[in-house]
Amino acid sequence: MAELRVKTRETGATAVVGRTAFPHVTSVTGGALDIVTGPSQAGFGPLDLLYASLASCLVLSARIAASRFGVLDRLVEVSAKVTGEKARDEPSRVARFDIEFVIKGDFDDAVRRAIAEAAEEEICTVSNTLRGHPEFASKVFG
Asked: From the Swiss-Prot or TrEMBL record, what is one GO molecular function term (predicted)?
């Protein structure tokens, strides 16, 4: 039997904020991003990053799904717009994610739906994590 090899990539992020100013986030792979906190500021806030993580995971997963279904050669473009609605009660959280896929290519709506469903329900690590109840293992230092 052939051994399954899964490509892994180091993941993780660190956010730092002082008494004033905005949070600065760095990834373990060298990425950097400044976070905005005001509703009228251009840029990414924490919820934007959550939606961006889901959206980017979904489009990459849709491309994987198209490949699995043997239609990748007919795929032109995939976009996923993710928004949500915050819960009205405590604790503060997103109660619903609203996802709009646009899947362009030479295939019918049934294939488009199958690609979106496979991406959202089977392949995307972010959507699968959000649906579950991941454990939080925190450590606090001084």
From this structure: ATP binding
